[in-house]
Design brief:
Number of strands: 18
Mean pLDDT: 91
Strand content: 15-25%
Distance between the termini: 75 Å
Low-confidence stretches: 156-173
Radius of gyration: 29 Å
Shape: globular
Number of helices: 11
Oligomer: single chain
Structural class: alpha+beta
Length: about 525
């Protein structure tokens, strides 16, 4: 038996493994160098962020909703980890391909640079072709590194039979440079790590000006302060949602893979469009000098499933939006104004369309500057965000706002409307059981069933609880703060042993009772009764 031939499979596997390692190092170098280059362009131009943003933009609404439902606020992290996992697999494949076709494998790395460049320059917030540079330069480095590393593996030897074109595994005579490859791979890994860490540090430092500007903000006393939360509005019941949601616990649902860090000292907002007699541009300092209002307002995300967590109540301070619009000469459609839609644009390219009539009908729609007594957190829109009581966030709550255009619903579809969500979306009357938890095991006897109900800008009039298929029993409502806030409720249940289903429903001030019919979040919010199943011991 030919001794060399018996070792060919093992040597072939070894070559493929080293090729896969070369591909992995090349991919790592490409991402690291791209991170470093993005620090000289802008952090959002990096390939992972750009491709992730493009993926979000092109993901069907049902899939997005599924991701939010299953991963919550970690959906963006999951997406980025998924992108890195796919890139890892592709890098391994390209590395193995390069052991047979060295140039083709390297060109494959360049192809991903083109994809990243197109994704970066195609983002709504992209303003220059320089956004393509991180992907292009990173993949040029990665392609060159792969070509070089595979070259250190030596040539492929041919089979002894000169009539056969089949390549065989390397032999020691084929030029395999073990020491040279190890040194080259180690140097590449170290250099890539250094580039990546430097890029990360530089990108982080770019937000220091924004952080400093936020630290210097002193919110003035509002001209119209919120009344103290009335006694009895916050029930002292274990596991019920607190009446005021702390900033750190407030839900966050948006499409930003990188939270924008906007410097308040350079921030500007422009108001223009149909029916605007006098265009207006204001700075953050200008807003601080205007009469401010302070209000407790409950926000709700349209992606909130029945019984879901994407609802929260906070004390907001800001400038009444209707006052700014009136300064510009804007009139609502009911008073002859030509614009029926207000399109808010964020620094990251997000567009949100709100009905002008709702913004100017007397409710406390505002450009918010503060949240629970502090300047807005970056995650929630610092320096300025918009909110409109009674409307789901996707048609009212533009974070990191920088532009307001007055237009019509017929002439422009905002980001979510283009993705099959409804143009108009008032928040539906809903309620939730916070305690006992699903599949809980309370003891028999009196069990306090409690939770929250909301119908912003209408108010909650009644909450009822049903045990199994029994009669509806009215729950005790906590004191109402305002009609724009949620309302806590409680129901003392005489629990008997065994399995039980607890169901809740609410009725708002218009007399409308929460519907039993279950609907999905798309196109204008979920509906249905919330139920929990428990076993009483």
């Amino acid at each position: 038996m030919d001794h060399d031939a018996s070792h060919q499979p093992a040597r072939g596997f070894k070559r493929l493994s080293l090729g896969a390692l070369s591909g992995l190092l090349a991919g790592y170098a490409a991402i690291a160098v791209a991170e470093l280059v993005s620090a000289a362009v802008r952090p959002e131009s990096g390939p992972v962020i750009a491709v992730g943003g493009a993926a979000i933009d092109r993901t069907p609404p049902a899939v997005k909703d599924w991701a939010i439902r299953h991963f919550g606020t970690n959906d963006k992290l999951v997406l980025q980890l998924g992108i890195l996992a796919v890139l890892t697999v592709l890098a391994l494949v390209l590395g193995m391909l390069a052991t047979r076709w060295r140039l083709a494998g390297s060109l494959g790395v360049l192809a991903f640079g083109v994809v990243g460049a197109l994704a970066a320059t195609g983002r709504p917030d992209s303003t220059s072709v320089t956004d393509a540079l991180p992907s292009v330069i990173g993949c040029l480095v990665g392609a060159g590194l792969l070509y070089w590393l595979v070259g250190r593996l030596g040539r492929r030897a041919s089979a002894p039979d000169s009539d056969s074109a089949e390549p065989v595994a390397d032999t020691p005579e084929s030029g395999w440079d073990r020491r040279g490859f190890i040194l080259a791979a180690t140097a590449a890994a170290a250099a890539s790590t250094g580039a990546g860490l430097a890029g990360r540090a530089l990108n982080s430092s770019q937000g220091q000006g924004a952080v400093a500007s936020r630290n210097k903000v002193v919110l003035p006393a509002p001209a119209s302060a919120a009344a103290p939360v009335p006694r009895g509005a916050a029930l002292r019941i274990k596991d019920i949602s607190p009446f005021m949601t702390p900033n750190g616990d407030f839900y966050r649902v948006d499409t930003a893979l990188v939270v924008p860090k906007v410097d308040a000292t350079t921030w500007k907002l422009r108001i223009h469009g149909k029916g605007v007699d006098r265009e207006l541009t204001v700075s953050f300092a200008d807003l601080l000098k205007m009469p401010l209002i302070e209000r407790n307002i409950t926000l709700t995300c349209v992606s909130n499933e029945v019984g879901g967590p994407y609802v929260g109540n906070a004390r907001w301070i800001g400038v009444r939006l209707a006052d700014l619009l009136k300064q510009c000469g804007v009139k609502p459609p009911s008073k002859g104004g030509p614009a029926d839609q207000l399109v808010a644009r964020s620094v990251d390219g997000m567009t949100i369309g709100s009905p002008v009539e709702d913004v100017m009908d007397g409710r406390d729609a505002m450009l918010a500057l503060g949240m629970n007594g502090r300047p807005l957190p970056f995650e929630h829109g610092f320096p300025v965000r918009m909110l409109v009581p009674g409307l789901y966030g996707y048609v009212s709550a533009c974070k990191w706002i920088q532009d307001i255009e007055l237009t019509t619903f017929d002439s422009y579809d905002s980001y979510w409307v283009k993705r099959d969500w409804a143009r108009k979306a008032p928040i539906k009357t809903e309620s939730r059981i916070d305690t006992p938890k699903p599949f809980g095991r309370p003891k028999s006897g009196t069990v306090m069933v409690a939770g929250v109900a909301w119908a912003q800008h209408r108010g909650i009039d009644k909450v009822e609880v049903r045990v199994d298929d029994g009669a509806w029993e009215e729950a005790r409502l906590a004191t109402e703060d305002t009609r724009d806030t949620w309302r806590q409720w409680s129901y003392p249940w005489d629990a008997t042993k065994g399995g039980h289903t607890l169901t809740v429903r609410a009725t708002d001030r218009t007399g409308e009772t929460q519907t039993e019919k279950r609907t999905n979040t798309i196109p204008d919010g979920a509906s249905g009764w919330h139920s929990v199943v428990v076993t009483v011991d």
